[in-house]
Write a structure and sequence with these properties.
Blueprint (H helix, E strand, L loop, with lengths): L14 E6 L10 H6 L5 E5 L16 H12 L6 E7 L1 H15 L8 E4 L18 H11 L4 H4 L2 H19 L15 E6 L7 H5 L9 E6 L5 H4 L1 H12 L15
Parallel strand pairs: 1-2, 1-3, 3-4, 4-5, 5-6
Helix pairs in contact: 2-3
């Protein structure tokens, strides 16, 4: 196996929330969730290789290869009730993983939560990361409002961040969507957006409703692309209220996984 789970997931829990981070980010963006989580919800952030604690490991650059690996490694831990939350790139990962589980007739998430990403059938509308120059890439990153101008202007920081961001963007570019008519997920889907997000429009968030045959709800927060930072408590409270019927007593855990 090319990539390995580096920390074990407790086998006995009632429900887990697996969290998938945004492009250029890491599992640490969900650290605060573990502090704020109520009702004994198990927050399980996924740490993709090539960043933070796994900085020296090779990164994924092919979307389907990553999903296949995640499926293989996570499948044993998805036999009990669980849910997915993905932000930006993470939303696409969470959706594609749920699709693979559905195709394999495996147990589906109690609910799929996606934030700050257009519905997956909509076309990728940004320049290719493979041909994008430094200044063009920095301009794109400034629109995300997740990286300060101070860091964008710092040569040393950008030497570290740019390869990670470019590889993560290549994941978005290599994603291939299949027709909605045969891929609507039979699990509830909840989509979140930022009212001033310059990367993802409200219409693109609402379009997620085509990807479930069960309940669909959307919610928008003030702020931009990274509302998960500015509205952490509101977002987590919404997720917890949605899952409360499935939560009993669950210890919190941290997961590092390919």
């Amino acid at each position: 196996m090319k990539y390995l789970i580096t920390r074990a997931i407790p086998k006995q829990t009632d429900i887990r929330l697996f969290c998938f981070h945004y492009a250029g980010g890491g599992a640490s963006c969900f650290n605060h969730w573990k502090t704020l989580a109520k009702n004994d919800l198990a927050i399980c952030p996924i740490q993709l290789p090539g960043r933070e604690s796994r900085f020296r490991e090779p990164r994924f650059t092919d979307f389907q290869e990553m999903i296949d690996e995640l499926y293989e490694q996570l499948a044993p831990y998805l036999q009990q009730d669980y849910a997915f939350y993905g932000h930006s790139l993470g939303a696409l990962i969470a959706y594609a993983l749920a699709q693979k589980l559905h195709a394999a007739r495996e147990k589906l998430p109690v609910a799929l939560f996606v934030g700050a990403h257009r519905a997956p059938h909509l076309p990728y509308r940004f320049p290719s990361s493979t041909t994008m120059g430094l200044e063009e890439l920095k301009k794109l990153l400034s629109q995300y409002e997740g990286i300060s101008q101070h860091i964008l202007d710092n040569h040393e920081w950008m030497e570290v961040l740019l390869p990670i961001i470019k590889d993560d963007l290549s994941l978005c570019e290599t994603y291939k969507h299949h027709p909605i008519s045969i891929n609507a997920l039979p699990c509830p889907l909840y989509a979140f957006g930022g009212l001033s997000d310059r990367m993802v429009s409200q219409v693109e968030i609402l379009a997620w409703g085509q990807h479930t045959s069960k309940e669909f709800r959307s919610h928008f927060y003030s702020g931009g692309h990274f509302f998960l930072k500015s509205h952490t408590e509101e977002l987590l409270n919404f997720i917890e209220l949605t899952l409360q019927n499935h939560i009993k007593s669950i210890p919190q855990t941290y997961l590092s996984v390919a």
